[in-house]
Amino acid sequence: MDKPEHHIFVCASFRAGGETKGKGGVCQKKGSMNFLPYIENEILDRGMNAQITSTGCMKVCDHGPVMVVYPQGFWYGEIDSEDKIDAILDAIEDGKAAKEFLIA
Fold it and tell me: What is the pLDDT of residues 4-55, one digit of tens each?
């Protein structure tokens, strides 16, 4: 198996035991799961060596939906449109951060 150059994590607000705490599944309520097929198709269309994974709660609900890119460790917030996803994927391809969406 080849190791992907980039691993993109999208918060799906899952919590152990299934309960929601605090703000209660903000990323999922704001449609983070709806973007998974779009991101996957973009990765394939662009020929990127990347993998996408949905995650449990990343505990930065105030910034949801949240997306994290590794190995760079870029945390992006309020990722609520295909335009923002495109800008982040463009930045990954250029070896840069999409600074306007960074939260950490």
Answer: 999 999 999 876 665 555 556 889 889 999 999 999 999 999 999 999 999 9
| Amino acid 78: pLDDT | 96
Lowest mean pLDDT among 5-9, 57-61, 94-98: 57-61
Q: Which fold has domain 6-95?
A: Glutaredoxin (3.40.30)
Distances in Å between the Cα of 103 and the Cα atoms of 3, 18, 37, 42, 93 are 26, 26, 24, 23, 20
Task: Write b or e for each residue in 80-101: b if 16 or more Cβ atoms lie within 10 A of its Cβ, otherwise e.
Answer: beeebbebbbebbeeeebbeeb
What secondary structure does DSSP assign to 43-63, as a single string?
HHHHT--EEEEEEE--S-GGG
CB 77 within 8 A of CB 60: yes
Classify residue 13 by its DSSP letter.
E
Residue 66: phi and psi, rounded to 5, are -115, 140
- Phi, psi dihedral angles at 86 (to 5 degrees): -60, -40
